[in-house]
Amino acid sequence: MSSSRLVGVGVGPGDPELVTVKGVNALRAAEVVVVPVMDSGERGRAEATVLHYVPEDKVVRVVFALNERTDHARREAAWDAAGQRVAQLLTAHSSVAFATIGDPNVYSTFTYLAHTIGELVPGVVVETVPGITAMQDLAARSGAVLTEGTEPLTLVPVTAGSAVLKDALNGPGTVVAYKFGRQAAEVAEVLRETGRLGDAVWGSALGLEAESIQPAAELDGTPLPYLSTLIAPARRDGTRGGKL
Length: 244
Hints:
- There is one protein chain.
- This protein is of the alpha/beta class.
- The chain has seven helices and ten strands.
- The protein has helices at about 20-30, 45-50, 70-90, 110-120, 135-140, 160-170, 185-195; strands spanning about 5-10, 30-35, 60-65, 95-100, 125-130, 155, 175-180, 200-205, 210-215, 230.
- The longest helix has 21 residues, at about 70-90.
């Protein structure tokens, strides 16, 4: 039975200053730090963030089919191969950290990896360290208030389809849309149809040189970066504590 530990560490949306103290400590305490990369080999956001805190020779790049949605067999094969690679690392090291953008329990590759490792490495201890999410960062940078009083908060990945987003926008509370960049035109139209366009804001590359934060009303149908985030605040009457 293994006594090794696999720790999923949320490293935030890209700004290295938004990695928590606990996250930095977990990265530094691990014997190796795994970062997910696409098969094209470019440095991902998680890797770039990690390198602010640990030396490069401690980082292990593992290929994941991060954007693969159509070829199920290719995606499964990539997950299996990644799981095997991390399982090998766990047999050689007592502690392995896996760095993921955002939070490891919110639409993260770590979820799938942990499931695979649980089957491949009996007895492995799996833990997570929470990270700042893109919606929190965008709210801070844009001034958008996510929730007040009794308002609900709905998080929707637009990869689930614009109909899911429309249902959320027709409901109460604030709606956050992730991964909407490629469907920016559809998202703008749904915001108009539901009367939620005026106060909505979107952002991408938060905390990085290419950062862009704009009113959703200025969306013109041009495709945006895949990891763009949208906030459509709840309808409010402007009174203080109106929804308490």
